[in-house]
Amino acid sequence: MKIRLCDKDRERFGCEEWLEYSPLAISINDLDELAGRFEFDVEDWPEPFYGQLTLDQAGQEDAKPKRPPWQGRATIWMLLRQNGIQVSWEDAGEAHPMLASVEVNPGKAPDPSLASDASTTLRSRTSSRATRKKSSTA
Length: 138
What we know:
Blueprint: E1 2-4, H1 7-13, E2 19-20, H2 28-38, H3 47-50, H4 71-82, H5 89-92, E3 101-103, E4 123-124, H6 128-137
Parallel strand pairs: 3-4
Antiparallel strand pairs: 1-2, 1-3
């Protein structure tokens, strides 16, 4: 998948318009950093990133994992680092993920961490919100 940061963030980080991203392409060092920071076992990756079901959700067919509060910052942090931009955790926290765009590679399944619902940090250009807006104006 590709992610496009807002103009302000692209200028600040000195990056290209579209950046390739995958939570599975994380480096060992970055995985160790996240595991230490958020206290999960590296062997469990990527489940800690996608989130976990709560006890109240157990057994519900339509249950969605509760995303960790650090998912948005971690996405920006990993995105930049995967594209050769050495950014600190603090600097990644200054980014504006709600202004970013996501382009899913054609023919590939979308990343479940970036589903296009209302609680999504990064939204696809073809999100359900955009589709609803188009259909209501037609």
